[in-house]
Amino acid sequence: MNQRKIVIAPDSFKESLTALEAAQAIQEGLMHVWPDADYELVPMADGGEGTVRSLVDALHGEIVEQTVTGPLGSPLTAFYGLVNNGRTAVIEMAAASGIEHTKPEERDPLTATTYGVGELIRSAMDHGARHMILGLGGSATNDGGCGMAQALGARLLDRDGNELPRGGAALIHLNSIDLTKLDLRIKNVRFEAATDVTNPLTGTKGASAVFGPQKGASRHDVAELDQALKRFAEIVMRDFNTEIDQVSGSGAAGGLGAGTLFFLNSSIRPGINLVIKESGLERKLSNAALVITGEGKIDGQTIYGKTPIGVARCAKQQHIPVIALAGALADGCDAVYAHGIDALFSIVPGAIPLDQALKDARANLIRTSSNIARVWQLAHK
């Protein structure tokens, strides 16, 4: 592998290593065998948690902290990333409105709001961003992105012309939407929403029915929230002739997908595709002899838009072999072989407690990567 190029493009290993830290550990292990190889580290993500950090690390951007309104109305310190010399902002909605900001006993999707997401968007526009990637996932909310819109100047009115309170349940009383005070800068920003969710806004596969219970919604709450989002979609269609209900991905993040479509004129795209594009992975793969990717767990669901498969498909366009590493290999993991991954390895050395596996993730990555290089070298003698 002397003077050969190796691209290392993992996702984060949740609760133990960021994507960059994982990539650095893999490189360290490979260098035990190939000290003179040309290494290209490309931290990756799929649009969910870790997307901001991955793109900031990959593109040498910066993290901006901002005090915003949390999902239940209390202030919290959130963040977003600025890359491409500040022209592009990368925002994870969960940083402002994520379920991790609520205790299990406090969760209330009837009143939870995405107002803080709108505040992050406003801050990013204040910093001059004219392109925004919005990672949709991990939400505590079910308000169709209407809280986000309220933070950006939209007014949601009932039959008497009164503004609705924040939260998804209030949308059942929606009668009109006033966009006359919506931040004018939005028209000059290109928004892209990133998600691996294809659920529509409402119905049995919609935001409320599928994701509401994990946010604390009872069966009655789910029905109420679904009707409220249906009302929102009906008003948007009636007054603006815009379909947001049955669009693929509109149900992501409690319907925030639909809100970005309507209020921000965004597109909705698979998160891994956006990260691949923004990170320049395709260009960085040029002339590579090997690609190594991975994430915390690889199973049968990995083929549905997760980072290792996105990286592998990109690599296969250039006929580059791909090895994937994971902290855990679970049921159905063999499915990845049909999607561009050539070999799959667990980094865990044996049956150990989860907390120990998380603590030792870096050392385990180094050791496994070193062993992979030794086997590769043996096979190519």
From TrEMBL:
Pfam families: Gly_kinase. GO terms for biological process: organic acid phosphorylation. The keyword Transferase applies. It comes from the Bacteria. Keywords: Kinase, Transferase. One of its GO terms (molecular function) is glycerate kinase activity. Belongs to the glycerate kinase type-1 family. NCBIfam families: glycerate kinase. PANTHER family: GLYCERATE KINASE. This is Glycerate kinase. The lineage of its organism: Bacteria, Bacillati, Bacillota, Bacilli, Bacillales.
